[in-house]
Amino acid sequence: MKILVVIFLFLQDQPKWIEKINESPLTVGLIILAVVSLIAVIIKKEKSSTENKDWVNKSPKKKQLLEFEESINAFLEKMNNPSIGYWYGIVQQRGEGQALMADASSAVKEDDYNYWAEGHLEEYLLRINSEDEDMRLDKEAFLLRIKVFSEIIDGLEEVIRKAEELELNITKEMASDYHAAVASKLGAEMGLNEIN
Question: In a 3-state reduction of DSSP, which class is residue 183?
């Protein structure tokens, strides 16, 4: 709610910023639309957060849910580290893609790590032999991938163990991220073997 007060106070001081946009009705309309959209998003997020807290507080497994939330938050904090965040983003994208493909086909499963790793290897083979220095992958590039994908796997395994310990389930997205991270690490190991 505090953010709404700040936005309201900002809008009250409108003459200074209105002058800067040359009083174009279209621009003013777009700014007002953007501000209204921002307010709607903030209200929706606050409502969603409150509803989620209400659900947790009313749950018979409140203690387990709060403990699991701490585990997830610790994992996400690790993933926000600049040295790993980029790679976790790649894992999430791969996880989403793998999940969609596995859902669309009965021929491949998300946990068919060799299948997905071979797909990554195909990309890596092109990059190993690339004439473009920025695209080329060398031993250090593969070692870095193996290291960060291992860290992501370790972090996800901690969350999975905590869920099992508390007799809770992980989300489908977390499972997809785990499968993608394992396949990504395997693909990087295959790529390293190609250049060794």
Answer: helix
Q: Which domain holds residue 133?
A: 61-195
The pLDDT profile of the chain, 196 residues, written as one tens digit per residue, is: 444 444 444 445 545 544 554 555 555 555 566 666 666 666 655 554 545 566 566 666 778 888 888 889 999 999 999 999 999 999 999 999 999 988 887 788 999 999 999 999 999 999 998 888 889 999 999 999 999 999 999 999 999 999 999 888 899 999 999 999 999 999 999 999 999 8
pTM of the predicted protein model: 0.70
Domain end residue (candidates: 15, 40, 56): 56
Same domain, 37 and 66: no
Q: What is the dihedral of CA 130, 151, 61, 175, to 10 degrees?
A: 30
Joined tokens for residue 117: 């790793």
